[in-house]
Structure formats: structure tokens, C-alpha cells
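Researcher: Next sequence.
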Amino acid sequence: MHSIACVLLAERGQMAPALNSIRDRWGDMLDKGATTAWEIFSGHEVGRWTRSWCHAWSALPAYLLSAFVLGVRPLEPGFKRALIAPQLSDLTWAEGRVPTPHGTAPSPCASNGLGLGCSFR
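Model: Next structure:
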């Protein structure tokens, strides 16, 4: 449910609370030494941090960061048309590569105080 809430926030252009959730929930995993996305957040299991140490459904940040922070999403099946609409929120920059059937979409973006600058090759 937590992941769904983050996606809904991002879809509505409210990246700040979604990014804060990533920093809080997934950051806690990193603080505890995680190298994978755990099944559940720490605190739900008595005496241990999680039930399982690697679960795809906990990998929301990978999707959210590419689809909304970098802003690369398909508009048509197979990325025949794509939307590139970065939402940096409080980040000063973001850079990544989003794989598509037509090649990799590079998407470096930076906030320069006047707006958002993005570079595409």
C-alpha cells in the first residue's frame, strides 16, 4: 500500500512527500546495511528487521526515480511515444538512463534556480 501511495503522489506532481518517504523508509534499510530491497519495512517484525531480504515489490524507488524524477514514461506501448517530464522537487540534480525498446533514454537534469535544465543526446 505504501508504494501505491507514493506512485499516486508522483502522478499528481507531489514529489516532495514521495521522495521523503523514500528517504525515510528505504533510507532506513540502507542505514541498517541493506544491499537489496526488503520485503517489509523494519519495525513490523518483533526481534528482526524484515521477513525476507530481497523482494521486487519493495523496489519502488527504482521505478519512481526513473518514471517521475527523471520523468521518462511511455505514452504508447513499446515506447513508440514517450513523455519526458522531470519532477526534481527538492533535488538539485538527477541523472540516469532509462532502457526502452528503442535504446536508452539518457536524462540528466539540474535545477539552476531559474528553472529546470535537461540535456538529451
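Model: DSSP finds three helices and seven strands in the chain. The radius of gyration is 16 Å.
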